[in-house]
Backbone:
């Protein structure tokens, strides 16, 4: 990946936030004190005007042209590199040798490719989904890969996209990024529904309210704003209180409390109804990068660049646990597992760790992605055939990577289940969802795109790896079409004023 | 999910000890938690009902429709519906989903207490001032009222025995003097327990509206009755300044193991202040029924008794005003009470200190100094990669990150996944506007109640009248918080 024009990069890369984490990353093998000092001086030296000016710059007259030229070139280049079809690359690596077997297995609805006698067992267990214990039936073998395929490429953001999330019912996708705009897309069609604008600086995080009516967004302009998806109007009250960039936000399950973590090292609990800080958690001594709330709302987890992950009691506001890994790498994102028993934590040493927070123990370390600099975010998800019951249920952790890939790890074996390629720059956010029985993943990144991936059923898979037939596959057809779309997209990007309204159709590339 | 991390000593504490919060929105006169304990409904002097969110201590919804002081509140089991009764001779059943009125029922007299059936939110009982209590079915828009008897059950004359007309007339005259002050449903709603002005407790069958058992409990007027969550313990406050706990038979066994003639109500404890002869404003059970709490007349304290021995365990120091209604949170050791003078809602709960060892994982809190035993290989130096690899190899657990623990089954399933009052952000929609508005830094002013209020569906005339009352009462007051 060539280093793009600095202006094209995520503005956060230029802002003190990123440069400090940059420092942190670079200094991860340096001494702790050195790192603290570096981040502190960057923090001190920050003048609030800078990011605002940068934000406004690209809306000026001369910069769009500059952007357009370079974006065009960049896109063609990147397309060439990605061609013929980026989607097939992950599959072709191992589907090549297991082609025949997976075809057979498709009938079982199973994805095992290991041994044949397992297949027989699967066929049995498939007929009787609940195996009887006495004859000690072989446990249903686990699929060893996933088969997500690119469904849509959603273009429209003018700069890097930092956060993406499915709405609670998964019918919509909200994305936000450095262009200070929040875009709402339809999951089913990939069309742009609306663009919310109003933030004065880039947006780092967003969250859907549990009732799906509101999108909350946290921005470098230090505010959190609410946007109503039904009325398409912003909330009259801004959530003002943080002294610095808002890094990550999360709702409690009831939606009455919003938790925010900020570069000002504080964690705030907001009373959503009154738009007022309810409680401030004396959280960390470095910027708070990650926030999450457990499914029943009783616990909050926060993590900071000081490498600490803290678990809080929502009701009393007290710290109940602090998790720290020996090497103390800066922690950039945390997520509770769906049942709330574990915490997944991203750290800038290129690891994602699964913690048993009750026992303060790392139980899994996931590696294989690149993470040295950015706050990557990820998610948990389920996989495997829905009609077979596994114990424990098949669960994966998914994360973006700074090399443009999306990685899925099996939670038990730590194996990489799939490596999705498609993004041409750092993948910052990944979220899982399910619409009409189809498992979906949405991702966003510095390449200004939001991509929707759909789990393809196994019977489609044999077509993809065959190199000879690849010309006829729909993906290839699309591969020829996409550059044209790209140009459209880029033109639109260059010509349209940044405040353009919903400009749906042309930005969507269907696969 | 936090139970595994919270200090067990804190969890073991059963009753609150410190005044922690003060909620204020108008002058509250009656309070009631919903069954899951997320929301607290508060009825105000001006007829407005305010739903507080216990988690944020903010106003979740305001319901406007009554024009006089609220007398009682009753939540439906799922927490979606709220029945309010007021001195304006009306009962309103509210749907908290959108704040609308499901039913409005008018009576011929002011209402003491109205309570919803525990499983059917379209059925309630109401005890009326100087009138017969009624069982009201509001399943159709036109309410069906059935009058409940107030008179105690007389022993039936045996066959062949002549009833003396004089005695009968005398009894009828006596019966006419009985009026019912409190009516509540039993746990399953099959029966109604009624307390009368002569100190009698009547058990009335809901289906037939006939009294099946009567018992004279005391000489005074029965002011208030509460059932514990187990449905078998009854708490009675009466005007003779004694709080009684009464053990009830299992009425669901009626007709199976139990005959109406065998029903016995047994007084378990009598709580009273023998020295000062204090009278009790309001009483409540704790969440488990193990404790009895009462506010006292002309006294700012809350008394907490435990029931196993009947001893006084705690007097909650209150604010400097007499307290009215007191309520206990349905699951937590938390008590709320409203001040009679200010109308503020005070909450008492447990304040847990921050454990500093939770902040620093390398440290532990020990009672006394412990000699540290070094592990054999503790300070051995291994290559970093080797350590890392070994660590990775040890990660051989099979975590289940999806399956939920079935811990919740202990609580009522209806209550567990109960209804959540929608979070409203727009003041215009919810009328959840603050009564206190910021004037300057640190200075608050009470918003005039008349301003910005629009009449909720109908009753325009009465609403404007009450608004006018509100202005005269509320204007000019200032408040600092």
Residues:
């Amino acid at each position: 990946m060539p280093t793009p024009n600095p202006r094209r990069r995520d503005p956060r890369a230029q802002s003190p936030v990123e440069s400090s984490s940059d420092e942190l990353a670079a200094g991860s093998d340096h001494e702790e004190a050195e790192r603290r000092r570096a981040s502190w001086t960057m923090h001190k030296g920050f003048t609030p005007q800078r990011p605002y000016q940068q934000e406004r710059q690209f809306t000026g007259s001369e910069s769009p042209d500059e952007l357009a030229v370079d974006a065009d070139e960049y896109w063609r280049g990147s397309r060439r590199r990605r061609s013929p079809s980026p989607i097939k690359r992950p599959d072709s690596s191992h589907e090549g040798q297991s082609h025949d077997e997976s075809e057979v297995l498709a009938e079982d609805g199973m994805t095992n490719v290991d041994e044949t006698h397992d297949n027989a067992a699967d066929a049995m267990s498939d007929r009787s989904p609940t195996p009887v214990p006495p004859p000690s039936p072989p446990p249903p073998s686990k699929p060893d890969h996933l088969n997500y395929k690119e469904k849509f490429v959603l273009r429209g953001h003018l700069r890097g996209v930092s956060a993406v999330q499915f709405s609670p019912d998964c019918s919509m996708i909200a994305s936000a990024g450095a262009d200070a705009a929040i875009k709402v897309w339809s999951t089913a069609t990939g069309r742009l529904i609306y663009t919310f604008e109003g933030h004065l600086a880039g947006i780092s995080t967003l969250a859907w309210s549990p009732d799906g009516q509101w999108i909350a967004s946290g921005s470098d302009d230090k505010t959190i704003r609410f946007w109503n998806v039904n009325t398409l109007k912003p909330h009259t009250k801004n959530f003002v209180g943080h002294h610095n960039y808002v890094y990550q936000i999360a709702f409690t399950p009831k939606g009455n409390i919003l938790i925010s973590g900020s570069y000002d090292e504080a964690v705030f609990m907001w009373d959503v109804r009154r738009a007022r800080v309810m409680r401030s958690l004396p959280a960390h001594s470095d910027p708070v990068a990650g926030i999450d709330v457990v499914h029943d709302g009783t616990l909050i987890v926060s993590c900071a660049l000081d490498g600490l992950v803290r678990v809080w009691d929502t009701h009393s506001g007290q710290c109940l646990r602090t998790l720290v890994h020996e090497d103390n790498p800066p922690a950039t994102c945390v997520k509770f597992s769906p049942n709330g028993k574990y915490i997944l934590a991203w750290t800038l040493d290129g690891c994602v760790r699964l913690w048993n927070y009750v026992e303060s123990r790392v139980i899994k370390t996931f590696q294989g992605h690149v993470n040295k600099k950015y706050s990557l975010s990820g998610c948990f998800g389920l996989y495997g055939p829905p009609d077979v019951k596994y114990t424990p249920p098949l669960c994966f952790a998914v994360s973006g990577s700074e090399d443009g890939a999306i990685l899925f790890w099996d939670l038990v074996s730590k194996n990489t289940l799939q490596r999705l390629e498609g993004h041409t720059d750092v993948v910052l956010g990944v979220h899982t969802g399910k619409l009409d029985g189809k498992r979906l993943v949405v991702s966003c990144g510095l390449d200004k795109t939001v991509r929707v991936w759909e789990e393809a059923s196994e019977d489609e898979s044999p077509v993809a790896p065959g190199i000879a037939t690849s010309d006829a596959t729909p993906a290839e057809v699309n591969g020829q079409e996409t550059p044209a779309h790209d140009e459209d997209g880029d033109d639109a990007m260059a010509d349209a004023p940044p405040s353009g309204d919903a400009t749906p159709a042309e930005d969507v590339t269907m696969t | 999910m936090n139970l595994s991390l919270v200090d067990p000593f804190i969890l073991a504490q059963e009753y609150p000890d410190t005044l922690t919060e003060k909620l204020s929105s108008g002058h509250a006169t009656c309070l009631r938690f919903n069954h899951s304990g997320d929301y607290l409904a508060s009825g105000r002097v001006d007829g407005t009902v305010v739903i507080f969110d216990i988690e944020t201590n903010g106003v979740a919804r305001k319901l406007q429709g009554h024009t006089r002081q609220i007398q009682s509140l009753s939540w439906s089991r799922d927490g979606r519906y709220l029945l309010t009764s007021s001195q304006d001779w009306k009962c309103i059943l509210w749907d908290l989903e959108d704040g609308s009125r499901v039913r409005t029922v008018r009576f011929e007299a002011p209402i003491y207490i109205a309570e919803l059936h525990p499983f059917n939110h379209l059925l309630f009982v109401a005890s009326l001032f100087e009138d017969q209590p009624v069982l009201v079915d509001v399943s159709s828009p036109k309410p069906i009222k059935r009058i409940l008897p107030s008179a105690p059950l007389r022993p039936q004359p045996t066959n062949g025995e002549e009833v003396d007309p004089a005695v009968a007339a005398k009894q009828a005259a006596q019966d006419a003097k009985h009026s019912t002050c409190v009516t509540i449903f039993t746990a399953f709603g099959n029966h109604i327990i009624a307390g009368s002005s002569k100190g009698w407790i009547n058990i009335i069958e809901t289906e037939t509206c006939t009294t099946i058992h009567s018992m004279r409990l005391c000489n005074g007027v029965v002011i208030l009755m509460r059932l514990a969550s187990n449905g078998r313990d009854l708490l009675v406050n009466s005007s003779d300044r004694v709080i009684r706990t009464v053990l009830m038979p299992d009425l669901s066994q009626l007709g199976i193991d139990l005959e109406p003639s065998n029903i016995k109500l047994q007084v378990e404890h009598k709580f009273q202040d023998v020295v000062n002869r204090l009278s009790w404003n309001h009483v409540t059970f704790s969440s488990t029924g193990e404790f009895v709490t009462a506010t006292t007349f002309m006294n700012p304290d809350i008394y907490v008794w435990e029931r196993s021995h009947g001893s006084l365990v705690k007097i909650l120091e209150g604010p400097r005003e007499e307290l009215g209604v007191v309520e206990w949170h349905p699951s937590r050791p938390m008590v709320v009470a409203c001040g009679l003078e200010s109308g503020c809602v005070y909450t008492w709960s447990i304040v847990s200190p921050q454990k500093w060892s939770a902040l620093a994982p390398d440290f532990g809190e020990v009672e006394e100094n412990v000699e540290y035993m070094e592990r054999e290989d503790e300070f051995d130096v291994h290559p970093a990669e080797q350590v890392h690899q070994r660590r990775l190899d040890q990660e051989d657990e099979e975590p289940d990150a999806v399956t939920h623990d079935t811990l919740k089954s202990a609580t009522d399933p209806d209550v567990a996944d109960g209804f959540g009052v929608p979070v409203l952000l727009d003041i215009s929609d919810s009328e959840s506007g603050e009564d206190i508005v910021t004037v300057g830094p640190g200075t608050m002013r009470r918003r005039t109640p008349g301003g910005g209020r629009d009449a909720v569906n109908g009753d325009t005339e009465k609403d404007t009248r009450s608004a006018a009352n509100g202005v005269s009462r509320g204007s000019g007051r200032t408040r600092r918080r």
Q: What stands out?
A: Residues 225 and 238 of chain A are 5 Å apart (CA to CA). Chain A touches chain B through 61 residues (CB under 8 Å).
